Fold these 2 entries.
Entry 1:
Amino acid sequence: MCGNAKCAALVEGALNHQTFSTIPVIFSQLMQISSDPNAGIGDLAGVCERDLATSSRLLRMANSVYFGRNVDQPRVSNITDAIVRLGFRRAQEIIMSASVALVMRVQHSIVDYSAIGLWQHSIAVAIANRLLYRNIFGEHESQDAYLGGLLHDVGLAIEHQFMMQAGFGRAVEQRYISSGLLLDTETDNLGFTHEELGRMLGEKWNFPAYLTELIAAHHDTQIAPDHPWAPLIRINQVSEWLCFSLGLGYSDFSKAHADELAHSRQFLDITDADIQQTAGLLHKEMEALTRTGWFELHHKYAA
Ligand SMILES: [Fe+2]
Ligand SMILES: [Fe+2]
């Protein structure tokens, strides 16, 4: 457990930080809307209407031919029309992703690590999770898998924001040199890991158990078969391996750990054909996101 005072102070810093504190607020608003049978498009529009960055991302996606617009349709210019065109679920994914993008807008990078690389990784794992989850378990709850992928490395974003000069930079550098696991160099340089920090955050932010457990154990390749969230954690591990293999964004591990993560495939009966199909769809979606400016963390938010 992340019991040391430095870790607790970091969590407090994130709780009081303007952009980080947006994540649990948006998350709980979206959860409320999802569980309310009377909630409609207007409620969802209300969550993001006051935030220019989120509104801009929604409009861009709705006007993208890949995600929302048929070539002969006119462009949409308001949030309600954008949500109708994208669909409720996709719009929720975009709103949540936009709140996470805000915390990854830190400029400086070190060796192979950058905020944009972490952002690409988080989105790629989220999409792969959604695709794999749907394949194995169906549409229901595939959005939980997306959110899990989006937030599984949130502890790294916090370490980047608050600990760059106080150990995180060294941890990233040493992992790069050793080709090992960032978990190990974090322990050496910070005294805790992004899994431990993420667990504490998930608890403070009142995330549902599946999400906190996934954040806390996403590198645990020995996860017990009767662990209540083992299937989701295993899916996230396959997605991490896949994104590493495809070179999508920053990975906080190297080949040896990727090989271990790949073992999760056998617990889920994921075939080579499933992997090929998922990789193809993932590539297409990442390319489409790139074309809509999704990975420009510092763009001017023009619609
Ligand atoms: Fe990751
Ligand atoms: Fe990680």
Note: The chain has 16 helices and no strands.
Entry 2:
Amino acid sequence: MKLYPMRALTTGVLVLAIGMPVGVASAVAPADGMHPLRSRTLTDLDTAMRGEAYAYSSYSLFADQAAKQGLPAVKDLFRRTAKTELDEHFTEEAAMRGLVGGDADNLRAAIEGERYESLSMYPTFAKQAKQDGDSAAAELFGEIARDEAKHHAAFEKALEAVRTGKGGIPAPPSVQPVSVQAGMPKVHAARTKQNLDTAMHGEALAYAKYTHYAKAATAHGKQALARLFNGTAEIERREHFAGEAQLAGTVRSTRENLTKAITGEQYEARSMYPGFAQQAKATGDSGAAELLGEIARDEAKHARAFEVARDKLR
Ligand SMILES: [Fe+2]
Ligand SMILES: [Fe+2]
Ligand SMILES: [Fe+2]
């Protein structure tokens, strides 16, 4: 993938994307041992997982920016917080949601997502960006559509190998990371900005899902499949998400990045998670209610830690 000189989106960390369903690999088991989760709880878990995946990927970029500005403590704070979002919040929500199934189920879910992105979402976004005069975005969306078609084909082959034992698991793609520069958006049309935001949420979610599928493959002794999932995950985050972030102007000065993170964490802590927890409790999804309530408290701590870090900046 090529690099583009780029500029910024002003949407916050927590703008939730409308797009593909999260892509649950298997039937949802009764997570609290009582009854299957209510559909509202499932939808809320999907929304939460999108937010956590997006937080992980954007905080990783904010950590890089803090390092560039010679702020190692802020870099560590963003890295540590990103890790909590992915390894705790996303992972716990994914477990409750039943995101990860058997290897074949996970591949089918991945194939469905790649098909949607390569045949529908990205071609539409490319066409719209071109109509709106955002040619760099049109070009990037077109390139990513072609990458997603390759992911789709590789996962199809892998599924065939897993199902029949015939043929091999394709080698993982090689990654050429995009180094994101802080700056303003490089796109103009409101529609392009919205599409970039949707695409970035999709890429962040794909990264989080594929790393979880890779862990499952490793646990099943399927090392080649784990490498394919991990390698593809790296493309989603370090090329696609990063390339889109560059155009969207996601990364600014560390002070601005902290402010954006605080706004997102406060929304999650005060509004989103308490609302989801209350809703889950009201419908009898008590295990989910407990988890969502715990996460709300964690997000409040993240917001405070980011505020302390911002106060310490000169
Ligand atoms: Fe979180
Ligand atoms: Fe992909
Ligand atoms: Fe992607």
Note: The radius of gyration is 19 Å.
